[in-house]
């Protein structure tokens, strides 16, 4: 994996998987102008071949491909590919987007999206992957005003110690483990409550509001425990 602070010489290599000519051109131009190296695939088969050959640093994946549903391509890539996958979906593909995230995609963009949003998501996904490769799942985690000592299970916000219930702690710990990444409700329910509770999204709502009350300055406008509309949640990390 390439270094966090400095992109590799020649820039990060991005594989763009998109069958739509106009969209592909927009992505190609935008990424090249911003010093990314771009490979392009127009089908899932081509995407797999190029990903294998080039080992890109990140894959931008359109879900509506001619030969295979993008949601089916994600698990095939995830079988060996460790880099971030950012899926691009149309409005009518909301459920596909969630399926792709469940299968291991890191983030998503809904068409139409702007250049700034695309680049911000890509930078965040690249940082998250690097951080996860470097950071152990223990020790002290800090993000903004939150400090979590994962060896002692101690949580503090703005220097004040906060008491969490075991389940609240487990939920927070799971979000920290995937800091910066979008987690679907299913992923959170599976990791925190277990396979038997995948339908009980209300658990998640209840515990997420409890966590926000304890950790956020204004629980109605969370800065740390962000809601991803219709998808799930994300722990915000700044860099
Ligand atoms: Ca398409």
Can you describe what's shown?
The structure is a single chain. This protein is 41% helix and 21% strand. By secondary structure, the chain is of the alpha/beta class. Strands 2-1-3-4-5 form a five-stranded parallel β-sheet, with helices on both faces. The structure holds calcium ion. The site of calcium ion (CA) has 4 residues, from loops.
Range of helix content: 40-55%
As an assembly, this protein is single chain
Strand order of the largest sheet: 2-1-3-4-5
Instruction: Provide the list of bound ligands, each named once.
Output: calcium ion
**Main sheet specs:** 5 strands, parallel
Instruction: Give the class from helix and strand content and strand pairing.
Output: alpha/beta
Strand segment count: 12
Along the chain, the helix and strand elements come as EHEHEHEHEHEEEEHEHHEE
Strand content: 15-25%
Number of helices: 8
Rounded mean pLDDT score: 92
Silhouette: globular
Uncertain regions: pLDDT < 50 for 5+ in a row?
none
Query: How large is the radius of gyration?
Result: 18 Å
**N- and C-termini, Cα separation:** 17 Å
